[in-house]
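Support case: copper (II) ion complex. Customer-provided input:
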Amino acid sequence: MPASYRPARIAALVGGLLLLAVGVLAPAAPAWAHNELTASAPADGARLAAPPRQVVLTFAQRLDQRYTQIVVTDGHREPMPARQPTVSGTSATLDLEGDLPDGGYTVAYRVVSPDGHPVQGALTFSVGPATAAASPGAPIAAPPPAETESRRPTSAILGAGAAAALAIAGGWAVRHRRARAR
Ligand SMILES: [Cu+2]
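Agent response - structure generated as follows:
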């Protein structure tokens, strides 16, 4: 009975289209599973009149004390003396030891996402009046936190998508088989 193949064929088509949609969307989707910086003090690009006592970074997701690194470096890439960063929920605080001299600084961070992938990035600020460290009036470039790891759980997403598509297609076929049986 050739007619009975039609629901299965349509179901396969629907499943295939879903798979295609998942395959097309997955690579373009943001790395939603990954942590990201949402705020900082000092703010990225800030020019401070007085040296900060600490740097506080706030992220979208909870941090793990063991895998949270923050380093402040000066214009010569020398790390500034600081304590170990302390984590509280989604925030990490780096207490600086001593006042930072006037100049430009970079705050580099590396944290771990809940899925275990590292996320790192950097921001800048400066202390004191505008100097040679940055040309006056020139906005300091503030790129979004860089994500160095390019791996994505694409296969996991595709796997889940395939399972969902198969479940939907299967349910569709079963419903039609029942309808035809009546
Ligand atoms: Cu990941």
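Residues 37-127 form a domain with the Immunoglobulin-like fold (CATH 2.60.40.1220).

Case will auto-close in a few days if no follow-up is received.
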